Amino acid sequence: MSLSTPAVESRTQFSPLPQDIEEHHVEINDGNIVMVEPCEEEHLDWDGAVIFLRFIMTSMLLIGLALHQRKLYQPTFDPIPPKFFLDSFEVPHLEVSEGEVSSTWVMNVTIWNVMNNSDINFINLEARISYEENQTLAVITPIMPQYVLSKEVSLLENGATKKVHLNLSTTGWEENQPIVDDTVVQAIDEDMQQGTTRFSLHMIIIGEVLLDNGWVQTFTMHPKCTDLLVKVVPDNTRTITHHKPEECVGLVQWGHIENIF
Questions:
Q1: According to a count of CB atoms within 10 Å of the terminal CB, is the N or C end of the chain lower?
Q2: 115-119, 133-137, 200-204, 208-212: least confidently modelled range
Q3: Is 121 in contact with 155 (CB distance < 8 Å)?
Q4: What domain of life does the native source organism fall in (predicted)?
Q5: What is the secondary structure of the chain as a DSSP string?
Q6: What is the rounded CA–CA span in Å between residue 16 and residue 32?
Q7: Spatial distance between the Cα atoms of 85 and 246, rounded to a whole number of angstroms
């Protein structure tokens, strides 16, 4: 009796090559096996990052060179100062009493930006009324910065004019007005007794001429109109002025050319 041996099927299984192996992530949820497809890894594009950094550095270098050349460059400019004209001058009240001068001076001044081909920014304008030429009686500042860091205060475009109204007054008792010397008060009183007296308008202007590309040139002016005759009506505080428009001229001091950028 012979025993028969069942045929055994021979199977040969080869291991896959490394490049053929796919990685799978296995998750088990409630006993179920879930195959999760592999995620591709994100790789940083170093070549693109280097190109971008080079672009940024080149741009910064070009901007720096442009700013440096701008500072070295200064425009050639032969400025002409603005002109100041006293259009009207009135003294509606003038009186000497108890050793003090009480008076009001009313004026209109025209400012003309002539032949500059540039705008002018007036930063400060101070006006003073003086007896004769050098004895200050009253002061006013109609143009001045409202804020410490204010840049544009009163802009006057090329070829344009600006009207400035001045109203100065004193009673001899104001804290913000000059103290008038007794000799000046006496001299004005003597003039009034004779029927006429004379005053002067002195102005101090600080401004800047606006050039191209952020360049400015500062200036300080001291225009004045002197020998302003006032007739005093006898036994009255009224006065009569016969004033024709005239130009107020004076010293001009030009500052350095600067770039505000």
A1: N
A2: 115-119
A3: yes
A4: Eukaryota
A5: --PPPPP------PPPPGGG----EEEEETTEEEEEPPPPPP---HHHHHHHHHHHHHHHHHHHHHHHHHHH----------EEEEEEEEEEEEEEETTEEEEEEEEEEEEE--S-SSEEEEEEEEEEEEETTTEEEEEEEEE--SSTT---SEEE-TT-EEEEEEEEEE-S--TTSPPPPHHHHHHHHHHHHHTEEEEEEEEEEEEEEE-GGGEEEEEEEEEEEEEEEEEEPTTSS-EE-----EEEEEEEEEEEEEE--
A6: 26
A7: 6
Domain boundaries, the chain: 44-73, 83-259
Residue 77 CB burial class (10 angstroms; 0-12, 13-18, ≥19): middle
pLDDT, one tens digit per residue, over 171-196 is 888 778 888 899 999 999 999 989 99
Considering the entire predicted model, what is its pTM?
0.69
Pairing of strands 100-112, 83-97: antiparallel
237-245 — which CB contacts under 8 Å span 24+ positions?
237/93, 237/94, 237/95, 238/92, 238/93, 239/90, 239/91, 239/92, 239/93, 239/94, 241/89, 241/90, 241/91, 243/86, 243/88, 243/89, 243/90, 245/85, 245/86, 245/87, 245/88
